[in-house]
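idk why but the lab printer keeps eating my pages so im just putting this in chat instead. protein + nicotinamide-adenine-dinucleotide:
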Amino acid sequence: MSTISFTDRVVIVTGGGRGLGAAYSRELARRGAVVVVADNGCDLDGNGHDPAPAQDVVKAIVADGGRAVASTEDLSTEKGGQLAVDLAEGEYGRLDAIVANAGNVFNASIEDWPTDRFESLLRHHLVAAFNVVRPGFAVMKRARYGRVVLVSSSAGVFGQHGMLGYSAAKTGMLGLMNILSLEGAEFGIVANAIMPMARTRMADAVTGVGAEDPDGSAFLDTLRQDQVAPVVAYLASEACTANQTVFSAFMGRVAALQIGITRGWTAPDGSFSAEDVAAHLPEILDTTGLLVPRTLYDEMGYVTTPDQ
Ligand SMILES: NC(=O)c1ccc[n+]([C@@H]2O[C@H](COP(=O)([O-])OP(=O)(O)OC[C@H]3O[C@@H](n4cnc5c(N)ncnc54)[C@H](O)[C@@H]3O)[C@@H](O)[C@H]2O)c1
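predcted complex ->
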């Protein structure tokens, strides 16, 4: 098994100052990467600014003999994303990988979701990823090499009560992944996503587990950050051969999501009624021979050339 090395590679880790992002930053730096720890140190609501988390991670990496620099701008702004990319390119002359991990959280039942909270979730996850990835893509395209890891969540992909804005934002990451991998292919740019689970301040807040709940706390401790970071290191590396794939990682298990479409039911003469849909629902939902399109044309091809 060859060693996965990041020697002389430059990686931006958004939200790299705390939790999983800090674990990714340390793991990448340990493997030789120069890490731009891009984190504005906001609170879980996405408010406030504190340079300390990013600076502390940088200090810890440097103390261990690694190389890192902090970018403490708000990535939900276009300027913040551009500055993180400029820092990587300006200081080190390159940008090899982006781990788009920054985000915030809020929980409420649907009727109670305030508009500003919903928008805040989209901004801190999805727009923040876009703000780094768009200028970063241009740098990677010139170098004809790049790796993008978008952090999604099973709360979005599969669903979770109370997480309306969060889930919408996290599923949006898959849209970014699809287009990055399609448009990046000819330039050696590869994009994948990860659905992690690990104990962090966000996980504590979402589960409501506190010191007064020793059982809940003990369970959360089984969700270790070092059971996610190796997957991100692989996906951010030159060794990564996966593309346009969503990985799930927690508790030592690594798996891949299949976004497929059933073979479905086709109306014999192309015309049908709502009653036909009801009557053929079992065939429509039957997952036997699931098809996994990579583009919308792939899906169209399955219908126009059904025997493939
Ligand atoms: N912890 C889990 O179990 C879990 C599960 C699924 C997905 N995730 C995702 O993993 C990522 C990391 O989560 P975590 O649990 O480590 O959370 P965390 O709150 O510990 O860390 C998130 C970091 O992102 C930073 N951040 C937020 N908005 C920012 C912005 N606009 N600009 C710059 N920095 C910003 C915060 O300052 C914070 O340090 C998030 O995207 C989260 O949705 C986590």
